[in-house]
Write a structure and sequence with these properties.
The chain is α/β, with parallel strands linked by helices. It has helices at residues 15-20, 48-53, 65-73, 111-120, 122-136, 159-162, 178-181, 223-235, 251-259, 269-278, 286-300, 310-338, 342-371, 374-384, 391-400, 409-416, 439-455, 457-468, 473-494; strands at residues 55-57, 61-63, 191-197, 201-208, 215-220, 238-244, 264-267, 424-425, 428-429. The protein has three domains: 15-150, no CATH class; 186-300, 2-Layer Sandwich (Nucleotidyltransferase, domain 5), CATH 3.30.420; 385-505, no CATH class. Helices cover 48% and strands 8% of the residues. The radius of gyration is 42 Å and the shape is globular.
Length: 505
């Protein structure tokens, strides 16, 4: 068959060349208009010699060998030489797919190969389209694939590449980031924040809603760092700000966050560590701990509870200091018994006198703080009406157990840590034990129970009943602790003082 190079109406022979530089639709032209060009060399094919060795291509010019081989590898085959091929002066009507009936279907490239091929052959496509327009004249028809939508100016990103949602640039057809397609702006995202507190630093992890990886930054554990954290939480709305109780190091930043009206929660470190093990986070660093706290806030969503007021925190600190002085006095008293040197004994005795003065002054401050609050004063009077409860137990319950009187007996027992926990599995019925809870409250309640089993008629009767049933003395004593706590909870809930006739066993 003679070459058709240079004939009027000569067509570009590569589908990629048709898709590279689409033209606007010619006004008044029908997409189903008959094809004036024969199909001896079908669209989507490269002549065999040019495809194999490179060289001139009809309507295009010289095609490099590498480009031709790439076209054939992408599916651009050599044209068929069937005797039934349509001649140059004949035509067949187009089908709804935009090709002649009986002609082989043009190759369909997937998005990735198409984008690479289009970019590689862009220069050839631009020249081919120009020569084709001049040769075909005004009667030339447009390809339905190209007429869908015009592309931008020269040098813009090809439409096929822009439409790939999984491209490396992460662009959608509109050129916007992925989150913009969902109508969510950066300023509208909400975050779960985890703050790991150390002596010198605050490691802050920001976990955006719907994300699995948190970003971590480090701030100084000073007033300047607290203010920067408050400003950042206002700029990026925080759903929860979770911190661990770290022996008082967190109080400054918690106070600043609460004063700013931010949703801050102080959680038990044991719960966070168990959560980290549950999700497979066994390593432990400040950065990892902050990320775990953010994940804990998102997954567990700890309840937002009002924080203690400034006076309540001061009362708790005074009680903590009193316990420290009591421990120091006990330690110095034990050292005095073993000291034989007169100078050492004089030193220890001077320390004991100083501790006694500090304890006396601290007790006065604690009592004065409670008397200044009508609510605390009323609670103290109700608690002191129960036989076995002294001033130190009442102070501890008022300061360390503000939930007393607002919970059920099961909840208050579990909160303090005197509720028996089951350990059953299958046919095995394990031994019930107590575990967890607030240790300082439990210590004060234990001493009060030791007095109550002797001087409180209700508790004493309950204690003897348990011993008669064969319970061990320690088990009976813990049961009496729970009984006494239940009575105190009911007294504060009803607002009525102790009366033996109204108490049941």
């Amino acid at each position: 068959m003679p070459s058709r190079e240079g004939q009027p109406g000569a067509r570009v022979t590569a589908t990629s060349l048709q898709m590279a530089r689409p033209r606007r639709r010619t006004a008044g032209k029908n997409l189903r208009e008959p094809d004036p060009v024969g199909a001896a060399e079908l669209p989507g094919s490269v002549p065999g010699r040019a495809a194999k060795f490179g060289g001139p291509v009809p309507g295009v010019g010289h095609l490099p060998a590498k480009a031709a081989r790439l076209g054939n590898a992408a599916g651009l085959r050599e044209p068929s030489r069937s005797p039934h091929a349509i001649g140059p002066d004949q035509h067949r009507p187009l089908t709804h797919t935009g090709r002649s009936r009986g002609s082989p279907a043009p190759c369909i490239l997937n998005g990735v190969v198409e984008s690479v091929f289009v970019g590689y052959f862009g220069c050839f496509a631009e020249r081919a389209v120009g020569e084709r327009s001049k040769a075909a004249g005004p009667a030339a028809r447009s390809s339905p694939l190209r007429d869908a939508k015009p592309v931008g100016e020269s040098g813009s990103r090809p439409a096929a590449y822009r439409g790939i949602p999984n491209s490396r640039k992460g662009l959608c057809p509109s050129g916007k980031p992925a989150f913009a397609r969902k109508g969510t702006a950066v300023s509208q995202l909400s975050y779960d924040v985890g703050v790991d507190v150390s002596k010198d630093w605050l490691d802050v992890a920001w976990l955006a809603q719907g994300q699995k990886q948190a970003s971590v930054e480090r701030l100084p554990n000073t007033s300047e760092g607290w203010n920067r954290l408050v400003a950042a939480c206002r700029e990026r709305p925080a759903v929860r700000i979770v911190l661990e109780a770290t022996g008082g190091l967190e109080r400054g930043v918690v106070r600043e966050l609460a004063a700013a009206g931010l949703p801050v929660v102080v959680v038990n470190p044991r719960q966070v560590r168990d959560f980290a093990r549950a999700i497979g986070r066994l390593a432990k660093t400040d950065r990892l701990d902050a990320e775990v706290l953010a994940l804990f806030a998102h997954a567990v969503q700890p309840e937002l509870r009002p924080l203690a007021e400034q006076t309540a925190q001061e009362l708790q600190e005074k009680l903590t200091r009193r316990r420290q002085l009591v421990q120091l006095r006990t330690a110095e008293g034990n050292r005095l018994k073993q000291a034989h040197c007169a100078e050492v004994r004089r030193s220890i005795e001077s320390v004991l006198r100083l501790v006694d003065r500090e304890l006396e002054q601290l007790d006065k401050d604690i009592d004065q703080t409670i008397q200044q609050s009508p609510i605390w004063r009323a609670k103290e009077q109700l608690l002191l009406s129960v036989p076995g409860v002294g001033s130190q137990t009442a102070h501890t319950l008022v300061a360390e157990l503000p939930e007393l009187g607002n919970c059920s007996r099961q909840q208050i027992a579990s909160l303090v840590g005197v509720a028996p926990l089951n350990r059953d599995s299958g046919s095995l019925r394990g031994r019930r034990t107590i575990w967890g809870g607030r240790a300082h409250v439990r210590h004060a309640l234990y001493m009060a129970t030791l007095v109550a089993i002797r001087y409180n008629p209700v508790i004493s009767r309950h204690y003897r009943h348990l011993l008669q049933q064969g319970k061990k003395k320690k088990v009976a004593l813990i049961a009496c602790m729970r009984k006494l706590l239940t009575i105190l909870n009911a007294i504060l809930r009803e607002g009525k003082p102790w009366h033996p006739a109204t108490q049941t066993t």
